[in-house]
Amino acid sequence: MNREIPEITAQQAAAKVNSGDTVLVGGFGMTGYPVHLVHALADSDVTNLVYVGNNVGEAGLGGGRLIRNGQIARAIGSFFTSNREVVDAHMEGKIDCELLPQGTLSEAIRAAGAGIGGFYTPTGAGTVLAEGRETRTINGTDMVFVEPLPGDVALIRAWRADRSGNLQYRMTENNFNHAAATAATVVIAEVEEIVETGQIDPNQVHTPGCYIDFLVQASLTAEDLGTSASISGGARKTDDTRMLMAQAALAELKRGDIVNLGVGIPTLVADLITPEHGIVLHSENGMLGVGPAPESGGAMDFPVNAGKVPVTALEGTSYFDSAASFAMIRGKHIDVAILGALQVDESGNLANWAVPGKPLLGVGGAMDLALGARRVIVTMTHCDRDGNSKVVPSCTLPLTARDVVSTLITDLGVFKVDSSGLVLTRLMPGVSLDQIKQRTDASFTVSI
Length: 448
Fold this sequence. Notes:
Glutaconate Coenzyme A-transferase, ten-stranded mixed sheet, eight-stranded mixed sheet, alpha/beta, globular
């Protein structure tokens, strides 16, 4: 190939962004995040930007600077809660934020790059995130129409590029980057290394060079990786109650299951799984075959899961981008999702992402997982900090999904959800039936 992509500096890249532009930004947490390009953008004088990305980076780094500078007018993404500066700016009316479920966000960007005029998804149907959107029933399932999300400029991060613009990602660093590369008028790729054309095996090209307009060489440092930079000590420390809940969740799994673990208590299940269990863990940022946390090291040496924690890769692991990951989820290729919750009700409805009046700006992948997984196991404390039951007759908090919970595990007991409602099937050690009755607002039957 004779086409050669210009190599420019991060400052020259920032100069290609105009005030008012819609900027697509790759990355998941700090993994695959084009931190040098975002810093350069924060050093520029552009304003009134529409920022589209999973989040706005970690607090204190490039995305936070854009917020502090008042350069972002609107942010469209899935999980802004990890950057308190975004939450505060939104609560103060300084920026407008639009939340999209993570899979919907990745698919909307992908659709723009594929020239598709929109798509219908079951994710979010019947929730507040579907308000104002066209909804129709297709093959008996409520579907929400979502328009594509094109950009004027895309800022992405890859591990390696050749001079023809072919990109290669490392481990879980692909995430939103490939989709963003396809969906903008001008695409600027920040890369660790630029090699001569032909030095990347064509079979190892993840984003073809036809999408790329400019290359910026910039090496990552531990500071650039934020909280994902390092880890020590291996398995997570926790209290006995939470571990009992994780053990109960593991007992619900069977050999051969492909399982996605949500944040919080569900992540503890990963530390209990051994090769003998024959369970494969999926992470929505693009990994199938997640292993336990390493004893030491960080994101420069290991893949990072959706919780931004470095993990090991088991034999047979595969990596892919976020759009492919959520296609797996929506396409029912994930057997079990283990999720946390704020409320579960008698019908198996799930609320786990928002509390009215609270400064929360994150929905993440929970809506996709709740609807896409073949079985949903919820782990949560039975009562909130004020002693109010979280097992309720009907959810009063904003819904994540309807009729999806198959098993509920709390610190008091294990419930199954069937056509008749909640069925208590097990008491946790030291817990009496009377205790559960006193602390449960929902009706339930007993089968112990």
